[in-house]
Amino acid sequence: MNADTIHTTALLIGPIGLLLRGASGAGKSTLADEVISRARGLGGFAALVADDRVRITVVGGRLIAQPPAPLSGLIERRGLGVMATDHEPSAVVRGIVDLIKDPPERVPMPDQRATLAGISLPQLVLQGHDPAAPRYLMIFASSLAATS
Questions:
Q1: Contact 133, 123 (CB under 8 A)
Q2: In this structure, is the dihedral angle defined by the CA atoms of residues 104, 105, 111 and 114, taken in order, positive or negative?
Q3: What does the mean pLDDT of the chain come to?
Q4: What residue spans define the domains of the chain?
Q5: d(CA 109, CA 83)
Q6: Cα–Cα distance between 11 and 110 in angstroms, integer?
Q7: In a designed cystine with 50, which of 46, 54, 78, 141 is the match (CB 3.0 to 4.6 A)?
Q8: With 60 as the cut, is the pLDDT of residue 1 above it?
C-alpha cells in the first residue's frame, strides 16, 4: 500500500468522495467549502476530508483520500486565512472534478473519465469560479450516488 500526497482537495457529499483538482487559485477550497455549506443547509451530510494536499492510496482497487497529518482539519478560506473545520478522516474517491480557468465544453464527452494512481474514475470539468459550479458539482455527486 503506497501513499502519495497530491495537490488537490477532497470532500464527501453523502457517501460520495470527490477530488477537486486544479492550479493554485482555481477555487478548490472555496468550491469545497460552498458545496459543504449548501449540502448541510439542505439537511444532507457533507464534510471536508483534506484541503490543498491529499494523501492517496489504493486499497482493494479503490482510491482512498486522507489528510496528511499536519493539515488535518484545516481549510484555507481566501482572505481569512487557514482555519480549523470539521472533517472526516478518509473517503473512498468516486469521482474527480477538474477546475479550469476557461469555460469547459458545453457538451462533454459521454462517460468522461480521469485516471489517478491507476484507477479510472468519472470526471467532471468545471470553470472553478463559475457561480453555478457548486450546483453542478452537487448534481455530479448525485449522479454518482445513483449509479452505486
A1: no
A2: negative
A3: 92
A4: 3-146
A5: 38
A6: 24
A7: 54
A8: no
- Alpha-carbon gap, residue 39 to 113, rounded angstroms: 24
- Residue-wise pLDDT for 93-104, tens only, equals 999 999 998 877
Note the pLDDT tens digit of each residue in 64-78. 999 998 889 989 998
Give the mean model confidence (pLDDT) for residues 18-31: 94
Q: Which residues pair with 48 in a beta bridge?
A: 11, 87
Residue type, 133: A
- Grid cell, residue 75, equals 481549510
d(CA 11, CA 50): 7
Q: What is the 3-state secondary structure (H, E, C) of the chain?
A: CCEEEEECEEEEECCEEEEEECCCCCCHHHHHHHHHHHHHHCCCCEEEEECCEEEEEEECCEEEEECCHHHCCEEEECCCEEEECCECCCEEEEEEEEEECCCCCCCCCCCCEEEECCEEEEEEEEECCCCCHHHHHHHHHHHHHHCC
Grid cell at residue 54: 491529499
Under CATH, which architecture does the 3-146 domain have?
3-Layer(aba) Sandwich (3.40)
